[in-house]
Write the structure tokens for this entry.
Amino acid sequence: MKKILIVDDDEDIVELVKNRLTKNNYAVLTSTEGNDGFNKALEHQPDLIIMDVMMPDLSGGEVVKLLKSNSITYPIPVLFFTVLAANMPNDAGLDEINVSGQLYPAITKPFEPNKLLSAIKFLLEE
Amino acid sequence: MSLKNKKLFSLTPLDEVSVLRKFAILYLISSIVPMALLYFVYLKHSNIGNIAMLLMGIGVLVGYFSIRSLLTKAFIIAKENRKALVPFLNQETVNELDEGQNELLALSRTFSAITRQFDNNINELKKKNEELRALDRLKDDFVNNVSHEFRLPLTIVQESIRQISEGMFGEVNEEQQRYFNMSLRNIECLKALIDNMLDLSRIKKGKFELVKKNMDLGAVIKEVAFDFSQKIEKKGLGIKINIPSQPLETFADKNKITQVLINLVGNAYKFTDKGSIEISAVKNDGIIECSVADSGIGISTKDQTNLFSDFYQIGREGHQERGTGLGLVISKSIIEMHNGKIHVESKEGAGTKFLFTLPIAVQEKGKTP
């Protein structure tokens, strides 16, 4: 079973996404803080991280910077989960967000469950 | 005479009668005296002298009356000038003028007063303009922030209801399902409104970005028609596509053009109760012309003029589908950002046709069209 880490400061969102992913046979870890999210990623090495952008302690962009500069967490794909993503699908039909000059796949809130699930499948190469 | 008391152009009220009397005496003396001298010294009792005397007398009279009428006109003009200038003068200056004193000084004061007033008006207008601009920026920022703040709670409400209605927490009966669907439908409306407000705020701030590529408009038309076909058929309407068999290559942002077509076909669907909707496109003289026509209720001339304004909605009664009043504003902006034009042709009760143009595709290097 693939492991997914959700990092979002909104507990309701975390609960709802966890619920949906669990029902779709994923093992779900959660965190509501950027720093804690990075530590959990380091400790559990999930297969995918779903990351909010605006969080009070560390922004999603800053957490990704930490993840990408660490050899253990470096290869883990990140799917941003945000209200901010521009509606510009890339060639794979995924929306993208520009985080410190780098484009990352993103799902825009409010989200379509099917879109979220197919993005996860695509990133996990399932 | 010193300049100080010279009447430049009668700001000071003139005593017309006395001026005319002075003029008459001076004129008559200055013309009759030399005439009399001429007669008595050189031409006395000769026939030529008598005739010359008569002609000169007539000349003097004609001269007198024409100069008098010119003077009278000048008085009228002077009065008008004074009337026009008096509002700009303070009482002190008016008094000074009435006393016939210091007209040059009064005039210069008058002009500075006028200039001051213009300056004040201009500064006031500048200030007002700046205030309005600040207010407009505030409104745009507000819309932008509020739209973002709306999205999170909306996500939570939508996903909670969706999960319950999907039966994740137990079976849902038919009536419950109907109410969940009602909620979800209205959440979609709210979402569309927020998306539109965000789009509009981006457009107004110049931050609405296009990703233009060569694309086939025909394919987009087919996709949109397909997405709507079920809904349209359910309402008992027909949908026709009228496009050439070869691709209609245009250089545009596919998502944004799709958004425009969804908006236009959505409107046609909303306002048509019987008949059909027809989407046409054709390449014509270096541009692509596209139209969405319906056989619906039509749009009155008055509504047509306001159609592309923010939050303008027409004919809500009897039509269940809710709009945001922003779709056409955004569509117009999108088309214009592609250097195209959009307009409407409609008659009340006789259907509506929206027409827009797009540029044809640019030729890529090393490729033949």
